[in-house]
Each structure stands twice: as C-alpha cells, then as structure tokens.
Known about the structure:
- The chain is mainly alpha-helical.
- The chain contains ten helices and no strands.
- α3 packs antiparallel against α4.
- It is globular.
Amino acid sequence: MSATASRPAPSGTAGAGRFARPLLGAFLVAAAVDLAGLLAGLDTVHLVAKPLLMPLLAAYAAVRGGPRLLIAALLFGWGGDVFLLADNDLAFLLGMGSFAVGHVCYLTLFGRGRAAGARTRASLAAGIAYAVVLAVFLVLIWSDLPAELRVPVAGYSLLLTAMAWRAGVLGRYAAAGGALFLLSDALIATGIAEWPRLPAPDFWVMLTYIAAQLLLALGVLRAGRAGRS
C-alpha cells in the first residue's frame, strides 16, 4: 500500500462527503418532480422544481471534491435555467449567454484532461462527425429561425458542439452528457423554428438536459478520482 493510500482523508473532506448521497437524492427527487409536472401540465411545479436542479447538483459535486470549473459550469447552467423560465427574446438571449459561459467552463476543464493516442484519434473522428451534424442542422433550420436569433443561435451552437466533442476526453459518461446536451438544445431550436415536435416537448428537453448535466458531472468526478488514484 502506498503512503498516499494509507493516509487518512482530511476530516473536513470526510465530513462533507456524508452529504453527498442526500444531495444526489434530493437532485433526483427534484428532477422526477419537475418531469412529472411537465407531463401533467403543472406549470407551477416546473417553476418551483427547475431552479432547484443545478444548485443541488453543484452542491453534490462540491462535497465530492469536484473542481471549481465544474461547479461554475453547473451554476451558470442554473442561471440559464432561471432566465429561460421567462418566455421572451431577451430572457432567451440572457439564458443562452449564461449557458455559453458554462460551456466555456466545461471546455477549459476538458482541456486539462489527458488523452491517450487512441482516444485522441477517436476524438478527432468524433469531432468531424459533430462538425458535419452541426453544419447540416444549421443549414436546415436557418431559414426558419427568427432573423434576430440566427447569428446568436449559430455562435452558441458552435460553442456547444465543441463542448460536446471535447467532453469525450474524460470518458463515456462525459461524452454521453455532451451529446445529450447537444440533443436537448437542438430540441429547443426546433421549437423556436416551429418545426413539428414530439408530444410533451418540454418534457423531452428537460429529460435530456437533466441527464446531460448529471452525466457531465459524474464524468468529471470519475476522471478526477481516477487521476488522484
């Protein structure tokens, strides 16, 4: 056994860790309540439950020893969640801007990851695939977007796609989270463009978004734990 392995964890860290499961459980309960409220058409439930999600997940990441950039990304996601509760163009742009800062936090965090040669090659192939999907999606949706939102949506989509691609350097959890984040925002964009949508569209947007943020957080935490080991 190494000296590091045999050294007991600091008491503060061990004490905070006791709150990890309750915080994760509270996050999952809030997510279930929010999704159920959306399916039932209970707007008040959504207005109450949605703003609780990212603070609970950020608190869970904090007590698990997650990096500050992860916590910042989640809290900027919370800012985006709150802004998007208001149904107007200004709130949409502010929400998109808050999410964009969160994606920058994720990108900076992923840039610190270390990938083996094989993973780097696979990541390059995934990057090409993401670029093709982004280009095709923007071409298809461009004319249906409001003129004043076209450039902001395109810029945000590029940043989000880069985040989704780079998430893969931290493993499958983070890669899946990045892909689901991209899918969630694509569902929002199709709604703005007034394309045909799935039944209960807000449910699917939130389901993919909640899963995306959780998987990204778990991917970062797993990578950090592996690095310390």
